[in-house]
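Backbone geometry tokens:
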Amino acid sequence: MDPFDIFKASGAILDGHFSLTSGRHSDRYLEKFNLLQWPEYTEKICELMADFGRKFSPQSVAGPTTGGVLLAYEVARQIGVRGLFCEKDMSGGRSFQRGFSFLPGEAVLVVDDIVTTGGSLVDTIAAVRNAGANPVAVVSIADRTGGKIDLGLPFFAALTIEIPSWESSECPKCLDGEPITHT
């Protein structure tokens, strides 16, 4: 089963009018938790991510809260290393808390769920570096940018799909007066 079929079978691809976490609006939404509720689908998607990430010999896997927690665990399990997560902190960025730490220069595979703007990944990569470790590659379950994202590291998404998004003032669904779902 290919990644698009997994997303469809799990009910993770939704059509409508959505306000995204980034503040932008879209007519399609990828609901990661519809996929992540199914262990067999999560395992298959994470297998693709682990296969890519393994090439970079990571010593650990790290992701941002919330969706990245489960993904860091499963990708790390498949590679055979530990999985950690970073949380939002008082500065507005992310940091590793709860006693998590890295060896100096430790090779870290960064994971995330859905890439829309890359903001969570940029913050997670910074948190890895701020903790003294070395991010070696990035993987996600889906890339909404259609492959246009550039994080300055090798990147792999199990599903690459171009889903347009708009500022609210330019959103065709808003202009048509269609009710919005906040994600």
